[in-house]
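YM 10:42: HPr family phosphocarrier protein sequence, as discussed on the call
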Amino acid sequence: MVEKKVTVQLKTGLQARPAAIFVQTANSYSSEVFLEYEGHKINAKSIMGIMSLAIGNGKSVTLYAEGSDEERAIEDLSQFLQKEE
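YM 10:58: structure's back
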């Protein structure tokens, strides 16, 4: 299992369109991917899970992945969250 703490740099946070793109990206990996925010750990492949967390700009999250492409999944998803739109 790989884990990485990341600060969300997306201007709008992980809401609506960015959340949908994040979930779409997570679903492109065969690994199980999770995101933890303020003690809540959810499946990163679930749009409802991501939206329920209401993660804003500047907030810290922890990404977890386990599977054959775990390293790449964590790297791509963390880069996405750190993009300044």
